[in-house]
Fold this sequence. Notes:
Layout: H1 7-24, H2 36-41, E1 49-55, H3 60-72, E2 77-83, H4 88-96, E3 100-102, H5 125-130, E4 135-145, H6 147-155, H7 160-166, E5 175-179, H8 185-202, H9 204-215, E6 218-221, E7 234-239, H10 240-243, E8 254-256, E9 264-268, E10 270-271, H11 273-276, H12 279-291, H13 295-303, H14 335-345, E11 352-359, H15 379-393, E12 399-405, E13 413-421, H16 424-435, H17 446-459, E14 466-473, H18 483-496, E15 504-510, H19 513-523, E16 529-533, H20 536-547
Parallel strand pairs: 1-2, 1-3, 5-6, 5-7, 11-12, 11-14, 14-15, 15-16
Antiparallel strand pairs: 3-10, 4-7, 4-8, 4-9, 12-13
Helix pairs in contact: 1-4, 3-13, 7-8, 8-9, 8-14, 9-14, 9-20, 15-16, 15-20, 17-18
Amino acid sequence: MGRHQSGSRMLGALMRGLVLLLAVGLVAGAGWYVLHDDATDAGGADCPTTLRVVTASSFSTVVSAAGRELRAAKDCILLDVTTADGRPAAGQVAQLGADVWMPDDAAWATAAPPGLLVPTDKESQAKRDTGAGTTLATSPILMVTDTPTAEKIKDKGNGWLALANLLDAKTPGVRLVVRDPALSGDGLVAAGAVGEAVWLKEGMDSSSLTLNNAMAVTRTVNHDLAATPNEPGEVGLVPEYALLPIMNLAQSRVYLAGADNTALMRYSWFPTAEAARDPKRVAALNRLREAFASTEVRQALNAAGLRGPGQTRPPFEGGSTLPEPTAEPFAVLAAHHVQHVFATWDAEDRRGNLLIAVDMAAPGAGGGSTAPTGGKQSALDVLKAGCRAVGDLMPVGSRLGLWEISPGQPGGYRKLLPSDRLDDTSRAAFTRSVNTLNTHKAGPGLLDTIVAAYQSVRDDWHDDMLNQVFILTDDANKDSTNAQAVAAMVEKLKALQDPERPVTISVVVLAKKDAADRLKAALQPLGAYVDNASSADDVQAAFIHVVAGGLHE
Length: 553
């Protein structure tokens, strides 16, 4: 399994989250929701234990109800509660030394610093002791639109894949409205569902391309109710909990749940590893978790418009207008999937140190003419378009270089543009270099170039971004069939590896699946990604994906 993101890049994302936290003020108005005052009035000053809790703003009234239960009980417990949403929340958990985090979706755990939370990806004593990963409440995301647009979605299959396939500037008419994925689980789960539907059907490269295309026809908002559509053709992605209180005001709209999958927010229970090491705090945390089954907390869930773990819709006037989701829920978004969403919405998540090497033989020179083309475009034109797209998508401050594999040149390649910091001047230079890319006579050079490119990025390694080598080849020289040479290349790459300076290797073979399979098997020990691109869309998807954070699972 390839390394998708370095620890330093995750730290950079966390720091950006902390900056965002200051910018959005945690939630509108007060950033803190603390129960100390109420607790003191009820004699809470005598409570022997205080738990520090960080939770989503849409879940704060539910946590408050649980806090009242614990405060009134024998051996009372106080809750010191902070509300924090989106990417900044993980930073708050760490900064405050919280005992438990209850975000509005389980996917947010991927944003936590390593070691902060009790692991949920494997069975452990700490997980068993604390119930880490338990789902406390849920809320499905619904599509909200006008009747003609709803019919278009139904005609395409009435699901999230249907919506994804309609979100393309090349086929205008359907536009997306979604909350900013960095601000809340509302937006993260909603945007993630669009990409996830394509990922399940066509793979991760196509998912990146779909999200990129959808972004061009998306209106991003900062509040859940603002995601409701304003104009014909818009499809708002809104959580059920936000819709239920306004159902008597929105009878003219059409609501779709998705026939293929259900997009589901999962309010989750994440104790911190530090709290799990203290038996007294574990006991207090378990009492808090058990309080969510009480009558008062269930009533608070209903009032908040949230479903309990049993998935029953809360009773609201007009709520029966909404469709009941019946399709299997999408899985919780994994770290790589979350990164796709963030990289689509935020240019800073596309910051990287990327070296592209292109290997394209001339038509008739050993197979160049069989490479994927884009209609009237030649295979080389398709690659040039992909390179230009990369240059446009990567933000200022990234590093970008371009090599052309050229048999007969020293080392087997030409440096069309040495890696350099990306700004307006270097971006223009990159575009000019892309325009000079050319085909060559089939000959050796691919394997040596992969090694040289890897060493170049390793030596130019930057700890605040993902460091990548991206090779595109038609394997016209059939280097993949030379098992001895390929094995020698792998050994050279192993010798160059530095755990302190990880470099991602991605190879896309054009229209030759057998060659891709051979290279994939050989490079597997290095965690490299190798795939075959059989169409112009495949090539475009690969370029978009590498900018979205690398081609790795």
